[in-house]
Amino acid sequence: MMRWDGANLGMTLNSAAETTEAAGNATVGAGTVAVGRGYASTYIDGRMLMLLTSATKLSTTDYANIKAFVNAKYALAL
Hints:
Elements: E1 2-4, E2 8-11, E3 19-22, H1 60-74
Antiparallel strand pairs: 1-2, 2-3
């Protein structure tokens, strides 16, 4: 799972603790945001279970609730 809080980009992989890195103002350039393969030379080589977006910053509680929802829906332990 990944999240950006406006200053830091955080990632959780295989139930490990979240790691964060300062990201400042993340931008995607002047083009359209695209998900999938074939849009640029860089892409995720893997499978995507679910993509959730939010128009606002997620609180720690919101993030925990989303993790709980995904864990319950797909019988995972993120």
